[in-house]
Amino acid sequence: MAARPDEDTAPVLPYGGDGAWEQQLLDHLRPAGRDLGRLVAWLARTTRAVVCLQDAHGRLLAGERLPLDAAVARDIAAGRVAAAALEDGVRHVRLVGIRHPGPGPAAGAVLAVARPAPFDRHAAEILNHTAGVLELLLRERELADAGRRLRRATADLRLAILQLLMVEDTVSARRVAAGLWPGLLEEDTARVYVVETSAAERDRLADACADSTEGRALVVRCPAMDGHVIVVGPSAEVGERLRSLVAGHPGTFLGGSPRQRLALTATAYGQAVTALAVARFRPERSAVYAARTRPAQLMDPAGVRTWAAGVLRPLDTLPHHVRAELLATTGLGLEFTAVSAAKVLGVSRNTVRARMDRVAGLLGADFSRLAVRAVAHLALNTEAAHGPYDPGGPAGHPADRDGLADLLGTRALRTWAEGLLGRLDEDGRDLRATLRAWTAADAHAERAAQTLGVHAQTVREHLRAAEGVLERRLTGGGTDLYETVLAHLVTGELPVPELGTTNREEPDSAVHG
């Protein structure tokens, strides 16, 4: 097949004409008509030809694959030839380079049109103008792709910053944030918010949160929950703007933490999720964690710190960074599931489970037991709130059940526990008995149903009803559930668990599934 450069193929858009094809071509520039496949199909029909649009690497973008002279196609893709015409006695082929928007002569795509009849002036004009429109559409698509890549990279950076905060690496988090959001994490404290909507609306809500906070907050699409957006905001104004945003968007809910040190971002996140459960039952659809009395606040401060230090004492032999990583992972794993914690931290669920198994082995804790998880959660939160206890100071034995029982035996705690669980007594379905049986069965509905002699679905329905009465998230686990378990320990409806019953000589042994 002979080839010759085609000098009359510079893409120029039509500014008028007496044929209908000009208007049809311009219609492909309208927002609703911008589609490479439709435009190539139109060109094929209009010129009675077979049309192929391929990128500079030979990948088909639209139309039908054509056997082309590889050397000519490479010359056009490289920008050495702008266009070419070929013929072999059977078909006539025109090739046009679609200019790449970047620097250099290389083409972004190659348009090939083959038909049995020679190209007259009318067909050549349609081809040239169509190439111009294709250049605009390809440029628009590339800009859109670049925008999506930029937004994805920015979202990945936000998530990376959050994950660094979750494991208490505030120095690295500030270093990463400084390049894109100068001053965002300059303060030592911040509040964490979780905004909830449907999974389908989550991206729009995240954009709305970013627009509303105007760069004053770290906005992250939660990697664990499809409908959640996590917002870390140093300024109190961030909370006000988010509440206004939620008020204007039906079906959305907002939970917030109190102000916490940046190193306690993981704790604040759990608090925000807990507050979110309360927000679902409030007409304003928002709640703040600090609005509720917590059982730890009713314990002797020095006593609970001494007890928590005793529980966590086996971890003190670990290097600081290892200890911090294990505790941060375990805290999230207790608050949520291993799968969710893995997504938040950006590690595998096997890594989360291995770290939790190691902590469980060191503490002598059976994390398959709900009451043990609640007690471990109390110890971790105590250290998170007050910092590590003086390693050289006094500490009770990690398995000192009597020490914990004494802490839980105060009049203030009993009043709190009876007040909390007593709300269930007013329901005729005996929700309190169901909740007691379910917590004793380590949150297994089927086992609780066997104990009560009812169907498992009845247990689940009672639990959902109890969540509304208590304004606490129970079936999702976490702080709300553990505090409810502590209330049962205080009232004596559950026995105080023992720690230290597993072999501490094998810190990596698995203790839960």
From TrEMBL:
Any idea where the PucR C-terminal helix-turn-helix domain is?
A: 340-381, 431-475
Taxonomic path? Bacteria, Bacillati, Actinomycetota, Actinomycetes, Kitasatosporales
Mind telling me which InterPro entries this protein's record contains?
CdaR-like_regulators (IPR051448), PucR_C-HTH_dom (IPR025736), PucR_C-HTH_sf (IPR042070)
Looking up Pfam families in the UniProt record yields: HTH_30 (PF13556)
Source organism, top-level taxon? Bacteria
State what protein this is by name. Helix-turn-helix domain-containing protein
Q: Signal peptide position in this chain?
A: none
